[in-house]
Amino acid sequence: MPIQRRKFLATAGTAAAAGLAGCSSVLGSDSGDTGVAGETLTLTTTTSTYDTGLLDALNRPFQKRYGVTVDAVAQGTGAALETARNGDSDVVMVHARSLEDEFMRQGYGVNRRDLMFNDFVVVGPESDPAGVAGSDSATGAFAAIAESGSTFVSRGDNSGTHTKEKVVWEEAGVEPGGNWYREAGAGMGDVLNQASESRAYTLADRGTFLSMQTRIDLSILVQGPIEGGPELLSNPYGIIAVNPAVHENVNYDLAMAYIGYVTSPEGQEVIDDYTANGQQLFFPRALSEDPDFQQYVPEGWRSEADDS
User: Fold this and answer.
1) Rounded to an integer, what distance in angstroms lies between the CA atom of residue 239 and that of residue 263?
2) Closest Cα to residue 201, out of 185, 175, 172, 221?
3) DSSP label of 44
């Protein structure tokens, strides 16, 4: 999908809209009041949000309300953030906190918010040649797969899922490689299809797996924390605006309006209500009686006051 750049919005009307992003007065406004009608927002995001169909459900009300277009470019998290680094994206929706933190520390991203979560699951053939079914340890399951030489299909694309996979291998004390380990360099949907055809194991986000479950011959063998599995397999998503001080051509005002919408009660309800094959794929995380300050800054950040 070609990425089209647009002139940076600098009108007083859109500045007001961005300043109030997330407030009911803005979300309830007509597009004529915000001055953004006819604009295009470029969103780089993960293949999981795209493949599951969540983006269509989430973007439709926003586009209708503001009279704008959301140009969603589905990439792995690493590629989505790199597109934003190059100034070819206005906002990113991704799920690898270490990569998000690096993006923010480098000054490319601002106003990060927690958005939603699901989890990762280890899936494979029902025959389960490595004998990992029901394991309460992701690292133990990975070690067993490697020891048995059973085929494992990796995303291999620096995506959020691939980043998580590498963490699990490292904690398992295994350096994957050899004939049993295949790096696909592909999105989650393609990897699940490859694993199904090869009767192989892979690490998948629960949302994409559930949305494809009826079309592939794979089963969940190791659960993530949503179903009582290890916390290591948690999968939080964040949303970040691209810094207009670095790339003045980005549509920052519309990006902030979008962040306000997806983290508002309305946007969070869309996420909460979205299902595939009768099952919820994502769980809202933006609203809380006790908001997590850490969502706004890189993990482990400490102010000078904290150190005094």
Assistant:
1) 9
2) 221
3) E
Q: Which tokens go with 186? A: 């592909």
- DSSP code of residue 8: P
Report how far residue 90's alpha carbon sits from residue 80's, in angstroms, rounded to the nearest whole number: 11
**181: CB partners within 8 A, 6+ apart:** 146, 152, 154
Domains and CATH numbers, the chain: 12-117+237-307 (3.40.190.10), 119-233 (3.40.190.10)
* Pure H helices in the chain: 12-19, 24-27, 31-34, 47-51, 54-66, 77-85, 97-105, 138-148, 160-172, 188-198, 206-212, 252-262, 265-273, 304-307
**CA contacts within 13 A on the Cβ side of 188:** 33
Contact 20, 26 (CB under 8 A): yes
SS3 assignment, position 41:
strand
CA geometry: angle at 240 spanning 117 and 30, to 5°?
Answer: 95
**183 strand-pairing partners:** 154
pLDDT averaged per 10 residues, the chain (length 308): 36 35 42 73 94 95 97 94 97 95 96 97 98 97 98 95 97 97 96 98 96 96 97 97 97 97 98 95 94 84 56
Cα–Cα dist 154/181, whole Å: 7
What global pTM score does this model have? 0.83
Distance CA 198, CA 196 (A): 5
